[in-house]
Amino acid sequence: MIPPLSPDRLPPADFELGLVASDIDGTLLLNWKPISTATIDAIHRCQDVGIPFVLVTGRPIRWLAPIAEQIPDLGRVVCLNGAVVYDIASQSVVDAHSIDAQTIAEITAAVRADHPEARFAYETLNGGFIDREFVAHRPREARIIDDVSELAGQDVVKVLVRLDTSDSQAMHDLIDPLLEGTCHASFSEPDNGLVELAPAGITKAKTLSDLCDHLGVAQSQVMAFGDMPNDIEMLSWAGHGVAMGNALGSVKAIAAAVTEAVDDDGVARYLDAVLDTHKKYP
Questions:
Q1: Burial, 48: exposed, middle or buried (Cβ in 10 Å; 0-12, 13-18, 19+)?
Q2: What is the pLDDT of residue 14?
Q3: Distance (Å, rounded) from C-alpha 66 to C-alpha 233?
C-alpha cells in the first residue's frame, strides 16, 4: 500500500484551487494505456465542485479521440504544445497559431545545412504530413511529401525534426541555436529522437494563460501537472506546479512539488489529497 502524501508536499494552506491543468502522456497515462479509473474519478471530483480540468498536451487533435471517449465531458484542450485550443464537446478548433510558409522553408533549410540527414514531419489543422524518409515510431495517418512547397494552403501548427540520434536533449541543443527565435523548440520524450517546433512565442504556458484569462481564473489559482521539458514553462508559470515521480530531473527541479509516478496514479493521489485537505471541497 502506497502511504498518503505528507503535508509538506501539498500546496500552502492559503492556496485557492481554481483550475487544474495537466499534460497527458507520462502524466495522466503511460504508453497509450487507458486513463485509470482513479484518475478519471479525481477529474470528475474537480469538475463536480466547479474546478475546470484542462488538458495541456503536445498531442495533435487526431490523437485526442481516445481521451474524449473516456472523458467526454472535458471542455477545451490546449494541444500541440499550445499552438491549438480544441473543444472536445463540439469537436472544433477554438483558436490556432500557425507557422508561415516562409518560416518553414527557412528553418528546414537552416537545419539541413548543418544536418543533411534531418527529416521533418508537419502537423496541420487538416492532419499530418511527413518527409518521405521520416521514420514514424507510432502508427499514424500522414501524407508523404517531397518538398515543403506541397504544404501550400495548409495551417502548419507544429514541425517535428528527426536526426540520426535518439537523444532528444542532444538534438534540442543542436537545433535550437539554428532557429534564431523563429520557432520555440522543445521535446516531450527523452529518447524518441524528436524535437518539436511550435510557432514563435507559443508554449503550453502562454496558451494556458490566455485560456485562464478567458475563464476568469488567476495564475495563482492554477495547479499544473507534467513530466517532460515541454511542461517546464507551464509548471513554472502555474501558481503550483507539480512534477510526476517519473518526470525528468530538470522538470522536478523547477516544480513546487513532486507526486507519485503516473503508474501509481500520481495525479489522482495529489488531487484527492488537496481536495481532502481543503475542507470547503466535498
A1: exposed
A2: 86
A3: 26
